[in-house]
Each structure stands twice: as structure tokens, then as C-alpha cells.
Specification:
mainly alpha, 4 helices
Length: about 90
């Protein structure tokens, strides 16, 4: 959940703000390098753990490939979407 949330924060502050879709956070003035130094290792660690664990679990559960990966991906994205909705409605 944390890697997805960090990626959303990065996207809102840089590419989407650059396109004029969102507004940049006023206190975010460090540039893109700190984000890249955090996001790249975080995503590498997350995917390095998530993919092998899910491959092992899919084999163990003997699940259909498409259904398993869809459910697994949605379970990762669900908390992030819920948090985004919860924060926007406050």
C-alpha cells in the first residue's frame, strides 16, 4: 500500500501538476531527486517481494492465472483508493 500511495503523491505533485490537472503541494520544493531516491528502491523492494510471494501462492492455491492476478492486484490497490476517497471527502 505504501509504494502505491507514494507513487500517487509523486504523480499529483509533478506530472499531473505540470499538466495543470492538479495543484502542486506548496511545501513540496525539494525537486524530483528525493522522490526518485525513495520511490525506485521502494518499488524494487515491493515488487521483489510481491511477485515471488504471489507466484508461490498461486501455485499453492492452484488458481486460474488471470483471476488470481486480477484479485491480487486489486487487493493492493484497494487500500490506496479507499484512503484517497476518505481524504477527499473530509
Amino acid at each position: 500500500m505504501i509504494p502505491v500511495w507514494a507513487l500517487v503523491l509523486f504523480a499529483v505533485n509533478y506530472p499531473l501538476a505540470g499538466l495543470g490537472i492538479t495543484h502542486r503541494e506548496p511545501t513540496e520544493n525539494d525537486g524530483m531527486l528525493p522522490w526518485l531516491l525513495v520511490l525506485v528502491p521502494m518499488w524494487a523492494a515491493f515488487l521483489g517481494l510481491w511477485i515471488p510471494v504471489n507466484l508461490a501462492m498461486r501455485r499453492k492455491r492452484d488458481a486460474v492465472k488471470r483471476r488470481y492476478w486480477t484479485a491480487s492486484s486489486l487487493l493492493v490497490l484497494l487500500p490506496t483508493v479507499a484512503l484517497m476517497f476518505f481524504i477527499e471527502t473530509k
